[in-house]
Amino acid sequence: MIQITPLTAINESDITLDFVRSSGAGGQNVNKVSTAVQLRFDLARSALPDDLKERLAKLAGKRLTQDGVLILKAQSHRTQERNRQDAMERLAELIAQAEKRPIVRRPTKPTRASQRRRLDSKRRRGEIKQARGAVPDE
Question: What are phi and psi of 41, to 5 degrees?
């Protein structure tokens, strides 16, 4: 079990790490060594609560496959170990972010004073516009 937050832990069996060659600059090292990490987290089979899975799926966006597998690629470091740590940290951040329940907005009624201020300003504005009319002939 990997502890993400005090309330959440995930099974190591739900995570698969594949090492692939990095893209971009790096000279011969990029061409010879597979340092980039492709982390696959099986969200569909994980033991996370359903509401957390839904929020995580929404946060994952394009990184989630149709089979319910979350894919993260880490290639910013030159070693496999650092990229593995980076991928695990990013997964942990994503899960911790999904763990926060959104605050439900409860609609409130405007106060009497705010209603009065709004109507007064509308009335004043209307009077200003009325005053712009044609000037009567004398």
Answer: -115, 120
Query: At which residue do the structure tokens 């709004």 appear?
Result: 118
Q: What is the rounded CA–CA span in Å between residue 107 and residue 99?
A: 24
Stretches where the chain sits below pLDDT 70 are 1-7, 9, 11, 13, 24-33
Confirm if 52 and 46 have CB atoms less than 8 A apart. Answer: no
- How many helices (H) and strands (E) are present in the chain, helices listed first? 4, 5
Q: How far apart are CA 1 and CA 9, in angstroms?
A: 6
Take residue 82 and report the two structure tokens written for it: 């650092």
H or E segment at 124?
helix 112-130
Report the residue count for the chain: 138
